[in-house]
Amino acid sequence: MDISLPPASSKGREVLRDLLLLLCSAFLFSLAFPGYLSRWGIGILGYVALTPAFYVASKASWIRAPLYGAFYGFICYALFNFWLATFHPLAIFIVPMIYFTYLMLTFPFLRLSVYLFPRHGYLLQVLVWISYEYLRTKGFLGYSYGIMGYSQYLYLPIIQIASLTGVWGVSMLVVFPSAFLASAWREGKILPFIRAHWKELFGYGLLLMGAMVYGWTSRVDYTSAREWKIALIQHNIDPWKGGVWAYRTNLERLIRLSDQALRERPELVVWSETAFVPGIDWHTRYREDPDVYDIVQELLSYLSRQTVPFVFGNDDGRLEKDRFGNLRRVDYNAAVLFDRGKIQTLYRKTHLVPFTEYFPYERVFPWFYRKLKEADTHFWEPGKEFTVFRAAGVAFSTPICFEDAFGYISREFVQRGAEVIINLTNDSWSGHVAAAMQHMSKAVFRAVENRRSVVRCSNGGMTCVIDPNGRILQILEPYTEGFLIGKVPVYTATQTLYTKWGDWFAFICIGVAIAGVGIGGITSIKTKISKAK
What we know:
Elements: H1 11-32, H2 51-59, H3 64-80, H4 91-116, H5 121-135, H6 156-159, H7 162-165, H8 167-187, H9 190-196, H10 198-217, E1 226-234, H11 244-262, E2 268-270, H12 280-286, H13 290-304, E3 310-321, E4 327-339, E5 342-348, H14 366-374, E6 389-391, E7 394-397, H15 407-415, E8 420-425, H16 433-450, E9 453-458, E10 464-466, E11 472-475, E12 482-490, H17 497-501, H18 504-532
Parallel strand pairs: 1-2, 2-3, 7-8, 8-9
Antiparallel strand pairs: 1-12, 3-4, 4-5, 6-7, 9-10, 10-11
Helix pairs in contact: 1-2, 1-3, 2-3, 2-4, 2-8, 3-4, 4-5, 5-8, 5-18, 8-9, 11-13, 15-16
């Protein structure tokens, strides 16, 4: 079977062909995840989505490889994260430009893999890709959307290996077929390639089968675990719309929905991220605005009459000294636990959204900092502690917003004693179900990685309960006003390898990729020297 493309008659046509292939790959990539065309995503496409991209990277010249990578990175994330256009005026440009840079650096390594190992370079390409996926989640620009393993969030037998390897092991299973097919495509004939590489293909089949067997046999039985009854309030109002009238309208709806939910006798009531915007503690102490103070007192009066604890997002304002010893107000994006109207504990968000919640480079890029402030950006200070709350006899923690997209945060909470993870988030600003679904897909992995139930309370969606096996037990329709009485399994009998060791699998992939490039480079140099003699 000949699978080679028709020869290009000119460099211009060759470049055009390569760009079209990269567009095709970007389109398949976006379809594998929840998006415009499929609310739940077409996860099976993840296994072939990168094939055209690997093919182009493998055949490109050294000059074209980084340029192709830059093009692919920008188009890929502009299609996949289209909803960022409503998040922030700069976001739909900044995020694709970040991946413009990342993949501009990654494509040459994909090219180098097949240059150093013409026969088995596709194996090194898989490791290079996993290394890229992990490294881009770290640091100030850390962002986990688009990791290939997340496209499999609905396929429970496959994703159970996340309890061992985190999402990275799932990504490896998803990425291998694309690298293999691209290598076969590059050589021109697929059947001879399969015959020549049947051992590798057979090995992959065993890994895939082993992962599925593990997936069927490793799921935990939580039927004897305590069922925690909690009320999740989805009030469907964007808290970004401020002002006294908006705050009062917001509070009235939260109280009305909570009163309805309290009739079901829950053990905890949960509101979403910054469900109540004015800083309760700040306005109680400083009373800068009488109208806002009245609203805060109305909320506290309501909470003091409740016998059930409430947890929700709120601005935590503090006066703190700067490096010059001057007092200044700093704000934290916080989750606060109230019991009978009194603050019991709070958690301050540790991993802030870059550019829109946090920009620590004001002195280095003052002009860019001013641009962000002019775009009505509200900056927060990062918290430093991983708080574990306790209510109704259950220990739980509350990653805020996209913190549940990073495995290390939920793992840290579980290591400190959290029995349930409750994510408080605000996705209503996006106006797109795809944004909420892409966010929720990551929470599925947090459940599997730690074998803990994960609850999500969003003001617009997706408000849901996920069991320790990653199965979505209950879910509210997005962008609707309502509440969900969650029946949450409090399962703590298993401590997973991921909880103990974290991202060990990603570290191994990075180490082997570096070693592979190093050994291949040394071998190539020795070969050239030998031929020169």
